[in-house]
Write a structure and sequence with these properties.
454 residues, three-stranded mixed beta sheet, 17 helices
């Protein structure tokens, strides 16, 4: 039977019970003592807890602007000016958040601005929300989605045309925060550092340059409602969406660290810019040269005053300090979009056919015809997939049940006139390869039938 030990006050550790003679140091407190071994053990426990709490914030390294743009280049063709501006803006935004987190830990708080006048805290870095101007299908939404994926933050895509001023039929502006919260899987901390892209922002411009006398509930009223959310406020978000009512619980979201990217086509804005540019020629008969990219050139000259004339209120423009115009996509850009990015449509369809054991190839004329067709529809890159789906629907329906097919070639006539694709059987492929003196069994590029594929 183990001997029962009795302790006198002051000569043993209150945690592990070791006597003073058995430890290196015994620290005295009010009626308690702790040994050096227990102090080290407690330090380890606290260090583990701190590491777990800080893990989400340091899960990945913040990429530099050049690194962000390099990744964007892999997915988005052209638009270099917009990609550079976005890379710098998001880097500065999340660098500020990292800095505030470090400062908050030192102060023992969470994202709270201290009202003191010391030299270090006197400078407050504001976020730089972004306004993207460009025609439909030029890549505005895709840029925002790709940025969120690069930075590993939640992203919400919303349409400004569905929003109305509080008290009217439509969605409250707080519902855009609910979508971000849902995409963050209900994690408030993640949602508060996410990205919200508001599309069709030009559709909430007021109908005239002068302030409206009557209510404009889907225009100027929405701009007013968005002001505080975009600038930074603690918003009360209904957990299931819809209209607010006083007897429900709300989710409190701080929007100060949410990056807002707004985009719109702003049709007719180039005329506002053109009038301003031509007036600055001091009465000379000046006419801008007529070029295909004339609209893009004027949009690149957009100033806040031009946006005010278009119908955005000054307070709203002030919340979007970075303004960048995207270029119109020409035929060369469309061809690159089809073939070069990591998620290029041509690469996607080739992979789909490869899973069936069939090689898919596109004639140069076919790719060019797809680009021309998309340009004629004036839907930008968005129309490329629709054209390909229409052209290849019957083919993709029949191919899985066709026997002995080795290769399918998409021709120009198929895209333009709906002709049949060129289908090459395995027998034809074998005959051609034998004529060239190639061993079909040893050629690593030869596509085996599906039943013999590993």
């Amino acid at each position: 039977m183990a001997e029962k030990r009795s302790y006198d006050s002051g000569n043993h550790c209150s945690f592990c019970g070791k006597e003073q003679s058995k430890v290196n140091r015994l620290i005295a407190g009010p009626n308690v003592h702790i040994c050096d071994e227990c102090v080290l053990l407690c330090n380890g426990i606290l260090a583990d807890d701190f590491e777990k709490q800080s893990a989400p914030e340091t899960a990945h390294k913040l990429p530099k602007p050049a690194e962000i743009k390099k990744i964007l280049d892999e997915y988005v063709i052209g638009q270099d000016a917009a990609k550079r501006a976005l890379s710098v803006a998001v880097y500065n935004h999340y660098k500020r958040i990292q800095y505030e987190r470090v400062q908050a830990k030192k102060m023992g708080g969470k994202f709270v601005r201290k009202h003191d006048t010391s030299e270090n805290s006197a400078v407050e870095i504001d976020k730089s929300n972004i306004l993207l101007i460009g025609p439909t299908g030029s890549g505005k939404t895709f840029l925002a989605q790709t940025l969120a994926r690069i930075l590993q933050v939640p992203c919400a895509l919303v349409d400004a045309t569905a929003l109305t001023e509080a008290g009217y039929v439509g969605e409250d502006v707080e519902n855009i925060l609910l979508r971000l919260y849902q995409n963050a899987e209900g994690n408030v901390e993640k949602a508060q550092t996410g990205i919200i892209y508001i599309d069709e922002i030009d559709k909430i411009a007021r109908k005239a340059d002068n302030p409206s006398i009557t209510r404009d509930v889907s225009g100027e009223g929405v701009q007013q409602a968005l002001l505080k959310i975009i600038e930074g406020t603690v918003a009360s978000v209904p957990p299931v969406g819809g209209r607010k009512h006083p007897h429900q619980d709300f989710i409190q979201l701080d929007t100060r660290n949410i990056l807002f990217i707004c985009g719109g086509a702003f049709e007719g804005l180039e005329k506002v810019v053109q009038n301003r540019v031509e007036k600055s020629t001091l009465g000379f008969d000046y006419k801008a040269p007529k070029r295909k990219d004339q609209t893009s050139e004027y949009l690149r000259l957009t100033t806040p005053d031009d946006l005010m004339k278009y119908g955005l209120i000054p307070e709203f423009i002030g919340r979007l300090p970075i303004i960048r115009a995207l270029d119109n996509l020409d035929e060369a850009a469309m061809i690159k979009i089809l073939t070069e990015p990591r998620n290029a449509l041509v690469k996607q369809y080739k992979k789909i056919f490869e899973l069936e054991g069939i090689k898919l190839s596109f004639e140069d004329g076919a790719v060019k015809a797809i680009a021309k067709k998309a340009l004629s529809r004036q839907t930008g890159a968005r129309g490329l997939r629709a054209i390909l789906e229409d052209a290849m629907m019957d083919l993709m329906f029949e191919i899985p049940t066709m026997i002995g097919v080795s290769e399918v070639v998409i021709t120009k006539e198929m895209i333009e006139n709906g002709a049949k694709a060129q289908v090459i059987t395995r027998a034809e492929t074998d005959k051609t390869r034998k004529a060239k003196g190639k061993d079909t069994a040893q050629d690593e590029n030869y596509l085996l039938p599906p039943e013999k594929m590993a």
